[in-house]
Write a structure and sequence with these properties.
seven-stranded mixed beta sheet; 3 helices; 28% helix
Length: 159
């Protein structure tokens, strides 16, 4: 590889990592406009393994917005990111896949008007994401996000 190809590959990896981090921040902050902006036209998300839905990003964002109201405190940790860039004759192509593990502790909303329940996380989900991305005129964007939830733990809040 040439230095120019090496630099392009590093820049692509950093840009892809920013999109994955942006995903976690958007979900945790409930910024559904930012969430939708991370997807390419025609992008889809699949949350069925976590009891959710699969569909176009606008539909999934609406479902997430309603579902996440139950959990006003969220902390999405996405780790062990394995980025695979399309290889076009030794140069990076215009598609990529990321496999990454997640741990997502959340707190349930408290009784009406009391804010979050102050306890340890009431709900923790974990598993792996598969992110498919494409290079677009706006930069790297998701074409598909798939959640592969492998375990969850729920705790009843102390009252």
């Amino acid at each position: 590889m040439t230095q120019r190809v090496d630099l392009a590959t590093v820049m692509d990896r950093l840009a892809i990592d920013d999109v994955v981090t942006g995903y976690a921040v958007a979900v945790d902050d409930g910024d559904w406009t930012a969430y939708r902006a991370l997807f390419a036209t025609g992008g889809r998300a699949d949350y069925r393994s976590a009891g959710g839905i699969e569909g176009p990003v606008a539909q999934v964002a609406q479902w997430l917005a309603q579902t996440m109201e139950l959990f006003p405190v969220r902390q999405h940790l996405i780790v062990n990111r394995l980025i695979r860039l399309e290889d076009v004759g030794g140069s990076p192509g215009d598609s990529a896949e990321v496999r990454a593990d997640f741990l997502n502790p959340m707190r349930l909303a408290g009784p009406e008007g009391e804010g979050p329940v102050v306890t340890s996380p009431n709900f923790v989900a974990a598993g792996r994401y598969t992110f498919a991305l494409a290079r677009t005129p706006d930069g790297w964007r998701f074409t598909r996000v798939t959640v592969h939830e492998t375990w969850r733990h729920t705790a009843v809040p102390a009252r």
